[in-house]
Structure prediction request, 313 residues.
Amino acid sequence: MENETLSSYFYFTLFNSQGLTRYVFFSLGLVLYVSIVFLNTFIIAAIILDTSLHKPMYILISCLSANALYGSFGLFPRLLLDLHSDIHTISHSACFIQIFIIYTYASYECTLLTAMAYDRYIAICQPLQYHSIMTSKWIAVIIAGVWIYPMFSIGVGVLLAFRLPLCGNKIVKLYCSNWSIVRLSCVSTTVNSLYGFFVTATTIFIPFAFILFTYVQILIICQRNSSALYKQKALHTCLPHIVSFANYSIALFCEIAFGRYKPGELPEIVVIILSLEFLIIPPLLNPLVYGLNFPEIRRKMSGVACEGTQAKT
Prediction:
């Protein structure tokens, strides 16, 4: 029976010492989840309902919000269930589904930020060719690439982890992660490590390098242009993306850094914060950043809110 349990379920160990405080964390998690769903749904609705916002930049912003909803769905329902329950086990299939959702969310965030950087690069560095380059067909190709490649590459990585024979079932996290499963393997994981490096390079490091390249080019163009108004406008359109990029980079770095430590080497509260930051802070901060910095979105959000208030009265 023990071997069957070991092979069929994983056990989250970080919930053991929560005690009654788990109800506080449950309430906090519920508030965060509702806030993320509300804010990102509001952004998506504002962009969909206003045809004047059907432009590449705003379409990519709505995709960023859709990804926030997707990633939050992969984390919060299961996390809230574990906080409310006395049993903290998860089946193999459910665990690998959660890994796929969370990892594709992380990859989508990187590729979406890259697409947004490309859009800003064309808009500022090649403004006269912007409309001829950023056509609806080209945007469709970009968005398809943003979604399809991470889905395929992460899917292969999950399958490689799924095939491993395991010698344990304890996960020192609040959710399933690929590296936590690979650590439990009874056999060599060289193939998994090499493939993981390849996926990390193609979905994180290369996109981030491209984003940095685009902003270096934007800074050069702004430096050459003597118009203060031009510089102010360029900064205004780029600032939300810079904030999102910096925020996600820091959060993702914390998650990657945490993954290098063995269980027990860090205080439990540090483990929890580092492992959850990239799944909570960007989905919560991005809609606020874009909603507050783009007057077109802000006006539409205010209009939707006013219409909802009038409908209730």
